[in-house]
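Support case: user asked for a sample of complex input and structure output to validate their parser. Sending the pair below.
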Amino acid sequence: MSFDLVLFGGTGDLAWRKLMPALFQAWRHGKLPAGGRILAVGRNALDAAGYRDWLQQRFNDLSGPTRPSAEAFSDFAAQLHYLQLDLTQPAHYRRLQRWLKQPKAEEGRAAAADTVVLYLATSPHLFPQICEQLGAVGLNGPEVRVVLEKPLGHDLESARAINRAVGAVFSESQALRIDHYLGKSAVQNLTALRFGNALFEPLWRRESIASIEITLAESLGVGTRGDFYDRTGALRDMVQNHALQLLTMIAMEPPARHEADAIRNEKLKVLQALKPFDAHSARRDVVRGQYRAGVCQGRAVPGYTEEGSVPAHSRCETFVALRTEVRNWRWAGVPFYLRTGKRLAAGSAYIVVNFRAVPHPIFPGPHPANKLVIKLQPEDGLELHLLAAKGASGLETLAPVSLDLDFDKAFLEDRVGAYERLLLEAIHGRLNLFVRSDEQEEAWRWVEPVLQAWREDDAAGLGPRPYAAGSWGPAGASALVARDGFSWAEEQ
Ligand SMILES: NC(=O)c1ccc[n+]([C@@H]2O[C@H](COP(=O)([O-])OP(=O)(O)OC[C@H]3O[C@@H](n4cnc5c(N)ncnc54)[C@H](OP(=O)(O)O)[C@@H]3O)[C@@H](O)[C@H]2O)c1
């Protein structure tokens, strides 16, 4: 299979920090199909050699194991090309069309590719225009797929507008919305655990599960991206997309087939079953916070409004914790807690499935109930926390042990990173791990009452609650779970 992968935004931060390293890893693992060309697009006047030099310089900033040797980079770079285009100029799209349709031998292939993946890694305000112009030059045939990076809109209306613009040119099956959490190995393993084994599914319900927690914690602040972040906030940046996508993977019914629409139909049903917020519950069940100066991982750090390019009186939330429920037979009454924030005590992301306590304890206790921990960051992994007999006398005491359910370790293969997996899925046209437009719009619909309540609170002078950098967020977040008799799991 021959392919062309075009990176709009090929000189951007996302391209050099995530996408190109992921493509390099895919190539190194021998997973990138032979006969492929990778085309970076940007406005700078570069040729292929200039772009390769630029990228090699950037790669020097990557951390040790992901940094290629000069020799490996040069082999990989043979597939890299560059085209100078201004995506706001309709006339420039003809150049792209010519490059794709009439390859030159020195570019590595004599015929047009079987598959063309157009990855939009630019600001989303360009997406409608890019799609329209791609359609105008006929770059929307059945061999073409378009990959859309987040953020896809800032509310339901703007998300719909982007989807309409994309949908006017590309069919739903050609439009691949990225949520990189879905590409993580632990999420793949969760699906395998649930639907590839008979053991867990009978327990995966309200009768056996007491609560579910999703924590996506960052120790970093907004850094130099304050301007972008202040227009976005944690609810839009993390909850509407990543946290809700993870929730759907946990809560969905078993799909009838391991096939994109069967999976996405089940995920959509979860989103539709989420307990809706109203003006009252948006204030009772959602906590928003903003970090103040503090000590994070041993270092004194400034507060959010002291970061560069953040307005001094910003009311943007850098932390959200919320409680919701999935209103169906499987999950009725089981609280789902989501928590995300910047400048928290640790940079770690995990899901904890808390099982119920044994109905009749016979060992001297108390003991923690079983839990399944799905680790997403910094390392992927799956652990089942159990209790085992401890000591020579056998049944006298129970002690916690954890069972490593990380299936990847059983296979002596290189671990596949999230972007690497998603890029390969896009090239192969497998849609299972991409978000369908109706899922994305349903997620926006669900967060809208919260955004509305915050707008009203802002107007009334009620901003986010402060928390010290390096803490686990405002005290209200602990109170939210304590109300139900729970506490957040310690860092995993
Ligand atoms: N950075 C991340 O880690 C990250 C993570 C998730 C999602 N995202 C999203 O991904 C998108 C890109 O982010 P980024 O951080 O890579 O942004 P960035 O560093 O500002 O890069 C923007 C890219 O778009 C190109 N571009 C802008 N206007 C253009 C035009 N008129 N014609 C052609 N190219 C144009 C720029 O190329 P030239 O300036 O060279 O022309 C550059 O390559 C954003 O929507 C962002 O929210 C980023």
